[in-house]
């Protein structure tokens, strides 16, 4: 997963729900160096009776926000979902640097 262009990530999940594996893998895919250098990372653990739904929300450097439901996707699908926009930003960055 391309995390270079993330500026903010918000993860909400129930640790006992089926979304827990996907949410935890997403959190572990963010490199420690990026966590300390400027990525705002927020996570919220939901209880079983919570009205809030599990979400993974990412804000990119171009202020685009994408949100996904980790209970309906596996980690590969979630990574591909966010990578689509990251690839667009990488292409734009490479064109501008030439």
TrEMBL record:
UniProt entry keywords in alphabetical sequence: Mitochondrion, Ribonucleoprotein, Ribosomal protein
Record carries keyword Ribosomal protein: yes
Cell compartment(s), UniProt: Mitochondrion
InterPro entries: Ribosomal_mL53, Ribosomal_mL53_fung
Coiled-coil stretches: none
One Pfam assignment: MRP_L53
GO terms assigned for molecular function: structural constituent of ribosome
GO CC, alphabetical: mitochondrial large ribosomal subunit
Domain of life where this protein originates: Eukaryota
The family this protein is said to belong to: Belongs to the mitochondrion-specific ribosomal protein mL53 family.
Protein name per UniProt: Large ribosomal subunit protein mL53
């Amino acid at each position: 997963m391309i995390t270079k262009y993330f500026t903010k990530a918000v993860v909400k999940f129930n640790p006992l729900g089926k979304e827990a594996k996907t949410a935890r893998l997403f959190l572990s895919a963010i490199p420690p160096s990026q966590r300390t250098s400027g990525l705002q990372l927020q996570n919220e653990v939901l209880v079983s009776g919570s009205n809030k739904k599990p979400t993974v929300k990412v804000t990119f450097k171009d202020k685009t926000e994408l949100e996904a439901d980790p209970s309906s996707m596996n980690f590969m699908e979630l990574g591909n979902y966010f990578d689509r926009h990251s690839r667009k930003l990488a292409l734009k960055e490479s064109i501008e640097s030439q």
